What does this fold into?
Amino acid sequence: MAILLRWSLAATMLAVACFVEAGHSAVAAAGVEAACTDWQTRHPEWLWCDDFEIDRLKRYFEYDIRHGRFVRETGAGVDKTTGMRTEYIPGDPHGGSLHLAFGKTPSASMTPVDAGTATYRDIYWRFDLRLQPGWTGGGADKLTRATILSTDRFAQAAIGHLWSGGPPGSDPERLYLDPASGTDELGALRTTTYNDFPRLRWLGAAGGRTPLFSPTNVGTWFCIEVHMKLNTGDADDGVFEYWINDQLEAQRTGINWIGTYSEYGINAVYLEHYWTSVPFTRIQQRYLDNFVVSTARIGCAL
It folds into this structure.
């Protein structure tokens, strides 16, 4: 995230003292926290903003800390601010996750970050991603998804995956859109539980242009934004697309996500770490920062 204000040294030192006294990360004094300060007023289209300078982790309806390996950490974010750091250990595919709920949800355990009444059909979300210097093994598979959770067993009416190593024969150095439907083409819910793969309709993957996880890009921060738009009624007009650093990478249009299904809309976005496809033999880390969910384009310059 671009720094919005450049302060003098004296002003920065004063801001550090103020933030520390208030319980904030001192690193936020660089001005980066302005992205999520008063965001509800400045960006009424945003449903969520987390730059991780303040501990908002209890607002997520599920947070897998993965034995202390997926945590907020000073210096792990963009420009050495506070971000989320995950650590992969050989032999354990799990690296932790953050699950955010919004809008109408099917379970009391899914505490939404908004009023919890809306049925969203058009959602954008963005975050910054970086792999540690010296990283090997491609994109580590799972990264993010938006979904419609439709029952208290988390049966999914639709899933917008963005991941590497998902589609057969995919390039592990690139991210792929991989949309899936949990309904039939008319809109009847077919899935009965979470990740009910035998009952999903896979709608066609699309790979990005940028080899995000190639050795030449390791260690660099990238801004990733994803857009999931449900189809209208029985029309095949759904959209799924993503950008890297504000440049369109891949797009799927003409999607029949859910037929005429309408009980729930898009009500969750996940940031997740689960790595199975490429064996690795040493501990490795990757980092996340500046997570925003919105009903309109967000962009990288917050």
Summary: Confidence is low (pLDDT under 50) at residues 1-33. The domain at 45-294 is CATH 2.60.120.200 (Jelly Rolls). The longest helix spans residues 9-21. The first strand starts at residue 46 and ends at 50.
